[in-house]
Amino acid sequence: MTHTARRIGRSLALVLPVVLVLSGTLAVTMVPWADNTPSQILTASAEDVSVPAKPRAAQDVLRDKLMSELQRGEAPGVVLTHLQQEVDRRPSLTDHCVGIARALGRAAVEAYGPTKAQSFARPVCDTAYASGVASMG
Known about the structure:
By secondary structure, this protein is mainly α.
């Protein structure tokens, strides 16, 4: 009798994990939020996988970098100095300096309020930073 019980135990030990895994897999695939439509399934053979992402424009990269500095708590005066240094280093950014400085002015108002933001003004890109501050204040 112990031999029979041992055989049944061994059979259950082999079959039970397989049954549990299969029932769990079926339960997950049968839930209502599992969308199995072909349009929702991502495959490694997608047609546009090898298409590189469009490079971001230098002025967008610079603006995001400077805005990030401002958001991390860097003083607006320091960020404006970084803007001036980048424009001096890369004259092609000159056409975009005004827009970036205005955006920094608006962000400084949100972070510091209009009076304190205005105290950081300096003649970077003419008076663009100050006009950004004024547009928010």
